[in-house]
Amino acid sequence: MMDRMDEIAAGYRTRGEDDEMVLQDFHTFRQALNVASGDQRLLVFIAAAQDQQDRVKDNLRPVFVDADVIGRFHVDFAGGQTDAEWADEIEKTKGKTGIFVIQSGQFGQTGTVLEQLPLTASGPEVKDALLKANAEFAKNEERKNYSDHVSQGRRQGVYFKNGMPYGEDRDGDGEIDHRGGASKAKGGGGAPKGDMKGKGKGPKGMKGKGKGKGGKGGPPAEEE
């Protein structure tokens, strides 16, 4: 089985070099923190000035293609004014520049720094810090039950405001349906009130089983 899987994977080898790898970068830090919480991964946040980021990326690329690291973390780079207040809801920060390994809070609204390194940290130093933090995270983080997690968030009034409205336009009226199920068209959907119910029974509110008071074949009973 494993040999067959290796054989299939061999047909999908990457063609670029490690130093050409595109590092992950979210639209905002807030979004990155929220996604990391949902995926239950640690977030590696790089808070550096724009003119420093290329140098830091060159240093980090070999780390994030390493077999022990790849696919285990989310990565985000500070985005100027959009992330100016990123540290406001994050605990245990020491300064606002550096490489921060962050554990998201339960609902991705807050976080805690597990490891912090300077922007000048070497690749091996970053890798060691990531593996150390991830080992601690894996030991203590409880796996989430999705339905229980959503229910608890609703009870606590947790809401993540997004640029795109939530929901789907199931009935094609051009409006987002915020509740499940398509809206019913006028005049349709469901049996009409007073419809026949069961074999031999008259409409709702009628007496008897289709027989009138006068006996077999007589007129139906009157409504009460």
Task: Please describe what this structure looks like.
The protein is of the alpha/beta class and 224 residues long. It has a domain at 21-148: Glutaredoxin. Helices cover 28% and strands 12% of the residues. The chain contains five helices and five strands. It has helices spanning 2-10, 29-39, 50-64, 123-140, 146-155; strands at 42-47, 73-77, 90-91, 98-104, 111-117. Strands 2-1-4-5-3 form a five-stranded mixed beta sheet. β4 and β5 form a beta hairpin. α3 packs across α4. Residues 181-224 have low confidence and may be disordered.
Overall outline: globular
Mean pLDDT: 80
Structural class: alpha/beta
Number of helices: 5
* Percent helix: 25-40%
Q: What Rg, in angstroms, do the CA atoms define?
A: 30 Å
According to CATH, the homologous superfamily of one domain is: Glutaredoxin
Q: Please provide the count of β strands.
A: 5
Which residue ranges are poorly predicted, with pLDDT under 50 across at least 5 consecutive positions? 181-224
